[in-house]
């Protein structure tokens, strides 16, 4: 389902409250019956039924009556809840074009209240039927039941926690800004994915940077587990930025050495085959790297103390298949409608206007499906609907395309909904 943030402009207070009530009901119900939704939302008589009809038309909820009559959130409905929360916090004021799409996440360009471009990553675990995701990812510990929305929420929580720790300790990663549900708001990096680079002015320097970054992470107690050309960005000054962190594990993990060696070999192989560079030195070794590490600086221990427990990492005992395209608070169960209804008290929202945003660059790891360049952007030119450029727009479906010349990246301008 395509995210059309423009629909937020027309969502009533009753529909939004019903959407929140349905989310709360799904804490311990796979399909939430209408009486429970009504008890949580506490709308006037008949208000929930009418709201559910409107939400169904927008494909924000799904009606299921196979076993018993009830409703569940769709991924689009979960998107709306996350975006609305970010808007209420003053972190997001407009949603622009999609700049990345992958098996486990989507990335959209957004504006903050100051008009600066940022990126929001929406995790979507299970979208492509990852049947082994529960075994290969450590978010669930020993839970026997789960939902894809819950998995996505945990993935986002883990990514935000790791990105925040890495950024605070001087690692070249995007700046984490906010986190809500399955959404992570981060700074927008003006750089190109390494997978798109055809040549580098100083290929040796970039290679050395990647290996230094890989070993620096290990010395601080972390292994990226997906350290490859799809998750490394390089700017015009040949400086690199690392993205995508949900799969990171501790160096104490049972498979840490294997995962570290795989990351190092992935980088070495790419530089040799794609860029024609072969380093005279061997890739760094895991044991030699840890031998020079200072345990007092271990980030895996600090992350465990800050809320993302080391036990989550230790539970991962299955070889993690590298994903070339990816991208903590656990909801507590509650069966009483009265005990959770008071938590539906977010801001009422803001008026919406429409403008358009310039093009942004994505990583094409195959010709037909753009990869997830989580924070990759070209020079975006945002304009509001009152500007002169709005006179040269034509409607094509639900998007507004600017008829003026495009940027050097070759993409036409896409619509942006101001929230």
TrEMBL record:
Polar residues composition-biased segments: 351-368
Domain of life, source organism: Eukaryota
Residue numbers spanned by region Disordered: 327-419
GO molecular function list: ATP binding; metal ion binding; protein serine/threonine kinase activity
InterPro entries: Kinase-like_dom_sf (IPR011009), Rio2 (IPR030484), RIO2_wHTH_N (IPR015285), RIO_dom (IPR018934), RIO_kinase (IPR000687), WH-like_DNA-bd_sf (IPR036388), WH_DNA-bd_sf (IPR036390)
Record's keyword annotation contains Metal-binding: yes
Annotated SUPFAM superfamilies: Protein kinase-like (PK-like), Winged helix' DNA-binding domain
Keyword list, A-Z: ATP-binding, Kinase, Magnesium, Metal-binding, Nucleotide-binding, Serine/threonine-protein kinase, Transferase
Catalyses which reaction(s): L-seryl-[protein] + ATP = O-phospho-L-seryl-[protein] + ADP + H(+); L-threonyl-[protein] + ATP = O-phospho-L-threonyl-[protein] + ADP + H(+)
GO cellular component, one term: cytosol
Cofactor annotation: Mg(2+)
EC number: 2.7.11.1
UniProt KW Secreted keyword: no
Gene Ontology terms describing biological process: maturation of SSU-rRNA
Protein family (similarity comment): Belongs to the protein kinase superfamily. RIO-type Ser/Thr kinase family.
Pfam families: RIO1, Rio2_N
Segments of skewed composition (Low complexity): 328-342, 370-381
Protein name according to UniProt: Serine/threonine-protein kinase RIO2
Domain RIO kinase, first and last residues per copy: 64-291
Signal sequence residues: none
CDD domains for this protein: RIO2_C
């Amino acid at each position: 389902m395509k995210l059309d943030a423009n629909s937020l402009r027309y969502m009533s207070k009753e529909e939004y409250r019903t959407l929140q009530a349905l989310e709360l009901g799904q804490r311990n119900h796979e399909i939430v019956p209408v009486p429970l939704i009504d008890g949580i939302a506490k709308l006037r008589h008949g208000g929930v039924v009418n709201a559910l009809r409107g939400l169904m038309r927008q494909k924000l909820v799904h009606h299921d009556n196979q076993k018993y009559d009830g409703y569940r959130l769709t991924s689009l409905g979960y998107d709306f809840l996350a975006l609305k929360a970010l808007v209420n916090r003053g972190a997001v004021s407009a949603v622009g074009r999609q700049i990345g799409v992958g098996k486990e996440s989507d990335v959209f360009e957004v504006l903050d209240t100051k008009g600066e471009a940022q990126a929001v990553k929406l995790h979507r675990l299970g979208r492509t039927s990852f049947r082994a995701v529960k075994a290969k990812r450590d978010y669930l510990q020993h839970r026997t039941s789960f939902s894809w929305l819950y998995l996505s929420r945990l993935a986002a929580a883990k990514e935000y926690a790791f990105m925040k720790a890495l950024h605070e300790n001087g690692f070249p990663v995007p700046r984490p800004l906010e986190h809500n549900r399955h959404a992570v708001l981060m700074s927008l990096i003006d750089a190109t994915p390494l997978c798109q680079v055809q040549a580098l002015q100083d290929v040796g320097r970039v290679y050395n940077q990647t290996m230094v970054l890989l070993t620096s992470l290990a010395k601080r107690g972390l292994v990226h587990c997906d350290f490859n050309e799809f998750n490394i960005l390089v700017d015009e000054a040949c400086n690199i930025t690392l993205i995508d962190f949900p799969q990171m594990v501790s160096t104490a993990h049972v498979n840490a050495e294997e995962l570290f060696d795989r990351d190092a070999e992935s980088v070495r192989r790419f530089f040799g085959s794609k860029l024609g560079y072969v380093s005279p030195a061997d890739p760094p070794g895991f044991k030699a790297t840890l031998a020079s590490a200072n345990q007092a600086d271990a980030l895996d221990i600090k992350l465990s103390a800050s809320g993302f427990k080391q036990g989550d990492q230790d539970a991962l005992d299955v070889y993690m298949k590298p994903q070339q395209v990816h991208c903590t608070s656990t909801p507590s169960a509650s069966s009483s409608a009265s005990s959770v209804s008071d938590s539906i008290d977010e801001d009422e929202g803001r008026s919406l206007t429409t403008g358009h945003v310039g093009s942004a660059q994505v990583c094409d790891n195959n010709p037909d499906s753009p990869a997830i360049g989580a924070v990759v952007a070209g020079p975006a030119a945002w304009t509001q609907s009152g500007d002169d450029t709005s006179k040269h727009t034509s409607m094509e479906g639900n998007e507004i395309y600017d008829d003026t010349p495009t940027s050097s990246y070759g993409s036409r301008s896409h619509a942006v909904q101001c929230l």
